[in-house]
Write a structure and sequence with these properties.
The complex is a heterodimer of chains A (about 240) and B (about 240). By secondary structure, chain A is of the alpha+beta class. Chain A folds into two domains: about 120 residues, no CATH class; about 110 residues. Chain A contains eight helices and ten strands. Chain A has a six-stranded antiparallel beta sheet with strand order 3-6-7-8-9-5, with no helix packed on it. In chain A, strand 1 and strand 2 form a beta hairpin. The radius of gyration of chain B is 23 Å and the shape is flat. With about 240 residues, chain B is of the alpha+beta class. Chain B starts with a helix and ends in a 9-residue tail after the last strand. Classes of the chains: A alpha+beta (about 240), B alpha+beta (about 240). At the A-B interface, helix 8 of A face strand 9, strand 10, strand 11 and helix 3 of B.
Chain lengths: ~240, ~240
């Protein structure tokens, strides 16, 4: 059970792309090895690759994700100094060290591919991507203005695909809540939290799901952004 | 000769692992007597001037809370942990205002409020709070609204003015969900905090003068979080 829930929380696309990247590197190393006349000891090749991988890189923010762009081949330089004066040996190892540095670009490219692919497979504006398994869902009250109500799973499931995304008026919500009443009589606009749901398998998305006081609004809070959805009917029952 | 050496080495490894196991994973022995506790408290932190042990509260197999009264008539707390085959004092507070003791790092289900209120402060109840302030943020075209989280748990005092309490279930549920999203952020932060409000017999908020501003000893590895005294006015009661 533990393992299954862990897997369901990992970003499967990212994982697959990393594995793919390594397969390409291994394949390239194998081709180099076959072409060489003076062959190095096999166990030294991974070592050269890993040291070669070591580089100075620049962090770039792209589509809300930080990607690493390699700049300086530090690992290759280190190996160059290690093999200084042993020119023949360096000749056999050099290409693997550089392949290690090139691997940085392979991973960089795989990240560039992962981001749009992830967006296509898990559309970021679909509620059903964030709330996919409703079986064990329930709500908890996170503010005293919440009433004693419970989740209507039937209503939630029925409306998952039809809820409309709407704009977040963050400052307006904040100011309305603050101004309408004296300081200690305030109602929270989102006094409930939906728990026990999980995001779509393999998406690796983590979300806090707040529910609006009228039961018709869902505020999703992910590490990168917030999304707001409205439904026709309330997804809660009881209370009032 | 070599065969002998291998045998010897194997035996050594087995012996070592038994010793390590016995040292780190053995189940705790019986807890020290009250006299031993007083002696140890005063040896480690003479300022504690412990004189009476009020109780020993076992929180789990390896963590025990010991409220005590000092010679100056202060009500203090000592935190005992089973480590390296010994019951050790992890921390001492000379006054017992509530504090959050985190037994196991980031796992909210291992968080306990602990307190030892001076009876002269005449509290009749404590309200504990878990709060995240309401807020909003607009940056780079991305709008965020943070709903206020305010969860409450009331403790009323009958005969004992000391005790411990695990975080309520719904607090744990909320914190787990919150921490999961927070830790997936590129720059994780934490805006949750814990608070408490003391009430007297007439249900008025009072300031528990004799239970706050104590001094303390801590061996460094003990994980506690400060619990702030809140004002009744800061609490939303719709």
């Amino acid at each position: 059970m533990e393992i299954i829930s862990n897997v369901s929380n990992t970003n499967v696309i990212e994982m697959v792309m990393i594995i793919l990247g390594w397969l390409i590197i291994v394949f390239l190393a194998y081709r180099m090895y076959r072409k060489q006349i003076v062959k190095p000891k096999v166990w030294t090749i991974p070592l050269m690759l890993i040291v070669g991988l070591f580089s100075l890189s620049m962090n770039l923010k792209m589509l809300e994700t930080i990607v690493k762009v390699p700049i300086l081949p530090l690992g290759v330089w280190i190996l160059y100094f290690v093999f200084k004066g042993k020119n023949e040996k360096w000749q056999t190892y050099r290409s693997y060290a550089w392949l290690g540095f090139v691997a940085n670009f392979i991973f960089f490219a795989s990240t560039l591919l992962t981001i749009p692919l992830h967006h296509v497979i898990y559309p970021k504006d679909k509620l059903s991507v964030y709330i996919s398994n409703v079986e064990n869902a329930s709500i908890i009250n996170i503010h005293p203005s919440a009433k004693d109500r419970s989740l209507s799973k039937v209503s939630l499931i029925k409306q998952l695909d039809t809820m409309r995304q709407e704009a977040i008026y963050s400052d307006q919500w904040y100011n309305e809540t603050l101004m309408n009443t004296e300081s200690n009589k305030r109602n929270e606009r989102f006094p409930y939290l939906l728990i026990g749901t999980s995001s779509k398998w393999g998406s690796g998305l983590h979300t806090l799901v707040y529910i609006e006081d009228d039961g018709k609004g869902i505020l999703l809070s992910t590490p990168k952004r917030e999304l707001y959805f409205r439904s026709q009917d309330s997804i809660m029952e009881g209370g009032e | 000769m070599t065969k002998k050496k291998i045998w010897f080495l194997g035996l050594l490894i087995i012996m070592l692992s038994i010793i390590v196991y016995w040292f780190y994973f053995s189940t705790p022995t019986s807890f020290p007597t009250n006299e031993q506790l007083v002696e140890e408290l005063n040896r480690i932190f003479p300022k504690a001037t412990a004189s009476i042990i009020q109780d020993t509260i076992s929180i789990d197999e390896r963590h025990v809370l010991v409220p005590f009264i000092s010679k100056k008539d202060d009500y203090g707390l000592s935190y005992w942990v089973w480590k390296n085959r010994k019951w050790q004092v992890a921390s001492i507070d000379t006054k017992g205002e509530p504090i959050l003791w985190k037994l196991n790092g980031n796992d909210p289900s291992s968080f306990y409020f602990v307190w030892n209120i001076n009876p002269k402060d005449q509290l009749s109840s404590i309200h504990f709070y878990l709060i995240r302030d309401r807020g909003y943020r607009i940056a780079e075209g991305i709008e965020r609204y943070y709903p206020r989280v305010q969860m409450e748990k009331r403790i009323s005092f009958q005969e004992k003015s000391y005790g411990s309490m695990q975080l309520p279930d719904d607090w744990i549920t909320f914190m787990n969900a919150y921490l999961e999203v927070e830790s997936a952020k590129q720059s994780p932060g934490r805006n949750l905090f814990f608070g408490w409000i003391p009430y007297d017999l007439t249900n008025q908020q009072i300031f528990p003068e004799r239970s706050v501003n104590g001094s303390g000893y801590s061996e460094g590895k003990v994980d506690v979080e400060y619990v702030m005294i809140l004002n009744k006015g800061e609490i939303e009661i719709p």
